[in-house]
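Quick one from the shared queue. A colleague (R.T.) flagged Dihydrolipoamide dehydrogenase as missing a structural entry in our internal table.

Convert sequence to structure tokens.
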Amino acid sequence: MSDIIKTDICIIGAGSGGLSVAAGAVQMGADVVLIEKGKMGGDCLNTGCVPSKALLAAAHAAENARTAFQFGVDTGPVAIDFPRAMDHVHSVIAGIAPHDSVERFEKLGCRVIEAKAHFTGPNEVIADGKRIHAKRFVIATGSRAAVPPIDGIDAVPYFTNETIFKNRICPDHLLIIGGGPIGLEMAQAHQQLGAKVTVIEMATILPKDDPDLVAVVRDMIESSGISLYEKIKTKRVETHDDQIRVIIEHNGADITIEGSHLLIATGRKPTVDDLGLDAAGVTYSARGINVDKRLRTSNSKIFAIGDVTGGLQFTHMAGYDAGIVIRNALFRLPAKIDYKAVPWVTYTNPELAQVGLSETAAREKFGDAIRVVTWQYAENDRARAEARTKGFIKIVTTTRGKILGAGIVGHQAGELIGLWSLAISQKMKIGATAGMIAPYPTLGELSKRVAGAWYTPSLFSEKTRKIVRFLLKFG
């Protein structure tokens, strides 16, 4: 332990947040040590966002082929080569990996240590036999799959998001416990690639999203043939004749569901174990590391960002947090987090995207002093041309037009939500969107039309008609 490294910033965790801090800090002139015990790129690149979206792309391609007949294109029976679909997944990971690699960050000027990190005091970390002393530390260790204490779970083979992308055999019947974004995305991906799928959720699917938007996703999920059980209790799991059984309590009776494979998708928990946080004077719990608005821990020289803080678990949040830390740690600016305009997307077909307050949250905060306007995909010419008419956009404002939240369910909802994130972050009113010029025909017109609908009651009111008739009297 004689090797001592002194540095400006030491970052623990090379996922999206840690890499963003490292790249930004070193290119701004700071001396940076980056420590990662697993794979560079973290969960997002290796077991999360990237592989899941790549698998969904393969699945949607298969579904598009099946439904091409509606455009006069006959493809015949669709043949699925599941191993080749997984090859696509891993080729996408491999294509992105060099951007997150040890080699790239060493070329940038970072010192990368591939080992487990452990605090031994408030300003020292040990990794690979080296003692790192830093002016500032950043904990970016992310989160990992949370497995609930279901009776029998330890005796049954199961996937989590961390292992399912290693599977190269299409399940005959995939059982999924958990109806959040991961569970539903993997349900649809596997169903479209040929598996029978059952989803089991103890509450309702996508519980953090607007129920009106979720209803559209639920309808598409069920109409595709996926079996969906909501508001039920999973009592136990077991194996029987090489099959997996999940015993649930449904409407007061026990039901046994049998399948070939099991995926646990019941959320994630922050990675706070074995970091020596007590020695560092960092306050934490099973929910994550406690941070203030500047992302400082109880030890003001140690910051924490991303999933490990127990907040919003999105890759783009870790990147946003990285910017807050750089301004605080390098420039001594009192930058504070502001999460009111954070968008999130569930990448099912149709996609579901939200930003800001939902209608329910807005009513809880403002009572009846809000307005809600919607516009259907079926009223959009581009959606009609592409036979993508399922879904709608919903905007929530104050009675004076300040935008509080937006929700979209439908084709490319994730691409459309960014405009509303910008509008909320810049404190724009609904008139700004209503007055923009949207190219025709595009899905982007949905945003302009729903904003225009906000003005419909007043614009076409009897009062307006009287004013127009009066003015027309003068020629």
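Residues 343-459 form a domain with the Enolase-like; domain 1 fold (CATH 3.30.390.30).
Residues 111 and 339 are 32 Å apart (CA to CA).
Added to the table.
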